[in-house]
Amino acid sequence: MSQAALRSIIGAALLVAFVLLPFAGLSDYWTYTVTIGFYYALLAASWSLLVGYVGRISFAQAAMSGLGGYASALGVLEFGLPIGLGLVFAALIAGLVGYVLGWLTLRLHGAYLGLTTIAFGEILRISVTAEHWLTEGSLGLQVPPLIPGGSRLEYYYIFLAITVGCLAAMGLLLRSRIGLFFQSIREDEDGAASLGVAVTTWKCVAFAISSAFAGLAGGLYAHFVQLIAPSMMSLQEMGVILAMAVIGGFHNILYAALGGMLLQVLLEALREVEQWRLVVFGLVTILVLRFAPNGLFGMLSNIFVRRRNSDG
Amino acid sequence: MAEQLVVDRLTKTFGGIVALNGVELAFSAGELIGLIGPNGSGKTTLLNIVSGYYTADRGQITYENQPIAGTSPHKLARIGIGRSFQVTKVFRRLTVMENMLVSGLSDWSETRSQASERATAILEDLKLTRLRDERASNLSGGQLKLLEFARIMMLQPKLLLLDEPFGGVHPELKRFMYDCIRKWNAAGITIILISHDMGSIFELCRRVVTLSYGDIICDGTPEETRADKGVLEAYLGEHHASA
């Protein structure tokens, strides 16, 4: 069985499992936790799209999510947009800012690129904190709910549907010619250009698309938790997203998304050990990078395919 | 024959080093030209400027009567200027077929099935069909060179710039590459070939341009180049050349 076939089967099985999960006696608290898990799954997948497929590192993903959260909230509060349009606005603003970040960092690689995206993310976070008159700064901004009076279960299914929809859209994009261009840029920019790929354009577009998904995730999160603060754009939050994608497997959007869900659930399950859980996740991230660079799910998939092939 | 590529007073310096010193050349459509010279003579710099990777300090380049200096590499690829690199730039984590499709699908007017069909035919020509679903990282050095050839042919180039295509290649494979180059040239593709392998240059090319320290020191037939004192001096040094 090929990796692609295996991924399709796993994807379908996971979808069924998540659809049925609330019927398996999931408490209100855990329904809430898994709903937040969908947010992180989307964020981790959006990061993996940029880093795993285009080879462009960014530490501004949390900031893009926060930007989307504030864009949607302010769009609704200040301009009276319906929440659906607010979410579209969030994705557009984050996508536009992502495009600018992509353009600013076109010629940068490695540490220089990473440091620039950190600086960019911090500029966004500090701007949101400083503009107290608009964003309420560190006090946090009250955000209207996605579904007035909606139950946890309704939110669960909306988040599940949007996450699945976004992952499917990312998958289609990556299977298209654009996905091939992205991967060719990751492999060798000069080589890609020599074959007619507009490297400059596609690098910017990749930043824009990845940021737009992060912005949409941030908008959803804002209208779910109904209170957002600049802390959602912090470097610590970025570290969590990075750990999720790396532990899941950042070379594959599905594995990265599963990493997001897995760590969110574990973060809640290990709440009793307080900050030590973050230390544990840091260690696990290092170990995964060292011994399973394809992530836990990538490693499991490789083992499964090898066994199937040797049996067959 | 019409002049397809004209390089006019091209100058390029890196710090204090003059890589190209007002180079003037004209290449006719359908020519097969060897570009030789000692290390650091400016051969690859010239190729990098013509293919858009470097910008010249001064001078003009005209391709099919259009000025192309400063045009980005991907646009030059799309108007028919294909190139290979000294070190192959094959996408190692992609399969052979995916490598081919990147090249084909960069032309938005081509559908995936059209590109696949063309890719299949080119892979067949280059004896790579059985490797079509193999990851490029599993290919040998010679197969990587062939894949690079194959990807360039997907661009349907009119001008081909080949930078050291025979480096580290088995003699048998080299003969096969000669055949490919001759066949493409016979089909009307202009080819500029850089190689340190003089045997290959003299066997394949009817015209040989020799560069030394950024200047053209000889432009003639293989026989003229072999007999040129300046060329011998550039390669062997003044003392050995006169001995």
UniProtKB/TrEMBL annotation, chain A:
GO molecular function: branched-chain amino acid transmembrane transporter activity
Cell compartment(s), UniProt: Cell membrane
Residues spanning the membrane: 6-26, 38-59, 79-104, 155-174, 195-221, 241-266, 278-305
Keyword hit for Transmembrane helix: yes
The protein's name in its UniProt record: High-affinity branched-chain amino acid ABC transporter, permease protein
Gene Ontology CC, one term: plasma membrane
Major localization listed first in the record, in broad terms: membrane
Organism: Fulvimarina pelagi HTCC2506
CDD domains: TM_PBP1_LivM_like
Membrane topology designation: Multi-pass membrane protein
Keywords linked to the UniProt accession: Cell membrane, Membrane, Transmembrane, Transmembrane helix
UniProtKB/TrEMBL annotation, chain B:
Pfam families in the record: ABC_tran, BCA_ABC_TP_C
GO molecular function, one term: ATP binding
Source organism superkingdom: Bacteria
Organism per entry: Fulvimarina pelagi HTCC2506
UniProt name for this protein: Putative branched-chain amino acid transport ATP-binding ABC transporter
Domain named ABC transporter: residues: 5-238
Keywords, alphabetical: ATP-binding, Nucleotide-binding, Transport
Family: Belongs to the ABC transporter superfamily.
Presence of keyword ATP-binding: yes
Entry GO CC: plasma membrane
SMART domains: AAA
